[in-house]
Write a structure and sequence with these properties.
Radius of gyration: 13 Å
Strand content: 25-35%
Number of strands: 5
Largest sheet: 5 strands, mixed
Helix content: 25-40%
Order of helices and strands: EEHEEHE
Distance between the termini: 13 Å
Number of helices: 2
Structural class: alpha+beta
Shape: globular
Strand order of the largest sheet: 3-4-2-1-5
């Protein structure tokens, strides 16, 4: 199961931690894992490359974490859009994705 944690500060998303594998299909053929990974990478690249927001990013097999290190309104909107997208995926694939909220980047 993918655990997608949105890191919150008050009522604002300031980052996320995505860990695990969806287990929807065989490795390399898992559309749920691909959808989640693609969304996370799109958000991270948009936040850092397009909007120039400062962020700490960690990536490993089955793991990605991003935390904004300074406030950025555009990055905040991207994180909000990512949240809406991941929640929609989790609604459609509840056995494969779990959305959680917390105050730090510990998975």
């Amino acid at each position: 199961m993918v655990r997608f944690k949105f890191v919150r500060e008050g009522n604002r998303n300031i980052g996320f931690v995505c860990s695990g594998h969806a287990g929807y299909a065989e490795h390399g053929h898992d559309i749920v894992c691909a959808a989640v990974s693609s969304a996370a990478y799109l958000a991270a690249n948009t936040i850092t490359d397009e909007f120039g927001a400062k962020a700490k990013i960690e990536v490993d097999d089955g793991y990605m974490a991003l935390t904004l290190t300074q406030e950025n309104a555009e990055a905040q909107k991207v994180l909000n859009g990512l949240e809406a997208h991941i929640r929609s995926l989790a609604k459609n694939y509840p056995r494969s994705i779990k959305v959680i909220y917390g105050g730090n980047t510990n998975a």
